[in-house]
Design goal:
Largest sheet of chain B: 4 strands, antiparallel
Helix content of chain B: over 70%
Radius of gyration of chain A: 17 Å
Structural class of chain A: alpha/beta
Mean pLDDT of chain A: 91
Oligomer: heterodimer
Shape of chain A: globular
Shape of chain B: elongated
Largest interface: A-B, 25 and 18 residues
């Protein structure tokens, strides 16, 4: 589904973020990308959702090359591949409902459709009682649930999660990981970048390990443990 | 069509929300726009003042035609009619020798020697003459040229145009130089104003860069992102313009008796009332254009 073919990313002046990495992620997989800070985890995700372009190499999504695509195609791609972030990227002065509605407004949906779909997704992620609250008043865990809800409104094929538990307490982190596991069971491909050892050890899933921009290991479920 | 309506509705709502919620940004943008609006009004008034000053000077720089003593009044009236029909001539006034003597007596009251000399006169030594007032002093040489080439040239004693020529030309030069200096100053002030507006709006947009980034990450189109900023700019521009207009009307009302003391024909409040819609439309168009262009250019950096 997602293929990296000899991808290198160099930031100006000469900082090598990714060095000739190749891998393939199949549809419906739950993949962890791990590594220390600066290893290149976020760069991989940013290359997938087109926040960045590779310096060398090619990236494919469903067998279609997605390097240097038009703005329109980027926007379309970001509806299929959604992202949740450590810093949430919510409009904090707006209510939860307004934050969720925004995703559908971008699609040009009518008010009726927006209300119906927001209520459905809020029910699913158990945040219906928070809809009229301003985002800034929510706890970290609740904020991340809102981000997930916003992602789901796009009916995505892939969810990229960039350190989604970085700002959360252990209980909230567990809750978010459980939601991601459930979404994966529904068929959504999940790519999770983290350096949280507990998450890595608790999830028996495929792990890509990055070090100084190089892919040093690609281990399958059951045979990976971070000590 | 429905999508476009939804887009407009959302942009309007979001634009109004930025206007209300981003208080400090809105206040700075309003203050800057008021300042530029008032500068534009000052521009209008400075040009109006210079025009009125020019008119004031021209009115006082008259052109007189003195006739020989044997020329009849009917002939003078005939010439008066011909000159009145000259393009650009406002008025041609006939001053008879009696009127001229009365005026001389009146003016001589301050000088006892002339007053006594006038009392001893048995006959009126003065002649009839015409005073020509034209829209522009450039008309006078043309009238002079016409008269000198016309059959009436032998009836004319002399023309004061040649006496006043230097002062007329100096006045024209002076007023033209003032207009050029004024235009230069205004262009400089306007350039600075545009830069100030652009920077203020640039900072406003930059402070909302996180919101712009979120919209981009959610797959919003550039038009979708620009929409609320477009309406926000409209809102603060309209609001600022109304305030600047209020300030201006208040100022003009308070100073309406002062300006005629400076220049008798400089009446800015009447000038505004007479040209209210026209001037407001032009200034408002300039303000909106500067603000919208500044907003779109500032946004462009974040939309790349």
């Amino acid at each position: 589904m997602i293929v990296f073919k000899n991808v290198t990313k160099i930031f100006s002046p000469n900082i090598v973020a990714l060095d000739n990495i190749s891998f393939e992620i199949k549809s419906g997989e739950f993949v962890l990308i791990i590594g220390k800070s600066g290893a290149g985890k976020s760069t991989v995700l940013k290359l997938i959702n087109k926040q960045l372009e590779p310096t060398k190499g090619d990236i494919f999504y469903k067998n279609v090359k997605i390097t240097n695509i038009s703005s329109k195609k980027k926007r379309e791609l970001r509806r299929k591949i959604t992202t949740i972030y450590q810093d949430f990227k919510l409009l904090f002065k707006k209510t939860v409902f307004e934050n969720l509605a925004l995703a559908l407004e971008i699609w040009g949906k009518s008010e009726k459709e927006i209300e119906k779909e927001v209520l459905f997704i809020a029910e699913k992620l158990k945040i219906k009682d928070k809809l009229n609250q301003k985002a800034e008043t929510l706890s970290g865990g609740e904020m991340q649930k809102v981000c997930l809800a916003r992602s789901l409104l796009f009916k995505p094929e892939v969810i990229l999660a960039d350190e989604p538990t970085g700002n959360l307490d252990p209980l909230s982190s567990l809750e978010i990981i459980e939601i991601l596991k459930d979404l994966n069971k529904e068929g959504i491909t999940i790519i999770l970048a983290t350096h949280n050892k507990e998450i890595v050890n608790s999830l028996k899933t495929r792990v890509l390990t990055l070090e100084n921009g190089r892919l040093i290991s690609d281990k399958n479920p059951g045979n990976y443990s971070l000590g | 069509m429905i999508k476009f309506y939804n887009f407009l509705k959302r942009s309007f709502k979001e634009g109004f929300s930025i206007f209300l919620n981003e208080t400090s940004l809105t206040i700075v943008n309003i203050m800057t726009t008021i300042m530029v609006s008032l500068i534009l009004w000052l521009t209008v008034f400075s040009f109006y003042f210079l025009n009125q000053l020019n008119n004031f000077l021209q009115e006082r720089l008259d052109f007189s035609i003195y006739f020989k003593s044997n020329v009849s009044r009917q002939e003078i009236e005939k010439i008066q009619k011909i000159i009145s029909n000259f393009p650009g001539v406002n008025e041609v006034q006939l001053i008879t020798q009696e009127m001229a003597l009365e005026k001389l007596k009146k003016d001589a009251k301050a000088n006892p020697v002339i007053e006594r000399a006038l009392l001893e006169l048995k006959t009126n030594p003065l002649v009839d003459y015409l005073i020509v007032r034209a829209k522009s002093s450039e008309i006078y040489p043309k009238i002079s040229e016409y008269l000198q080439k016309s059959p009436y040239s032998d009836k004319i004693e002399y023309l004061t145009y040649f006496e006043n020529q230097k002062i007329i030309q100096k006045a024209i030069r002076f007023s033209n130089i003032l207009k050029i200096i004024n235009l230069g100053l205004i262009i400089i002030v306007l350039i600075f104003s545009v830069l100030i507006i652009f920077n203020t709006i640039y900072i406003s947009v930059h402070s909302l860069k996180d919101e712009i980034e979120i919209l981009q990450l959610l797959g919003a189109s550039n038009t979708f992102i620009r929409g609320p900023f477009f309406f926000y700019t409209l809102f603060f521009s309209i609001f600022s313009y109304i305030i600047s207009l209020g300030v201006l009307i208040f100022f003009l009302e308070k100073t309406k008796n002062f300006w005629p003391l400076v220049l008798s024909n400089f009446l800015p409040h009447y000038f505004i009332l007479e040209n209210f819609l026209q001037i407001n439309a032009i200034i408002f168009f300039i303000i909106i254009t500067i603000n919208l262009l500044s907003t779109l250019l500032s946004l462009q950096k974040h939309l790349k």
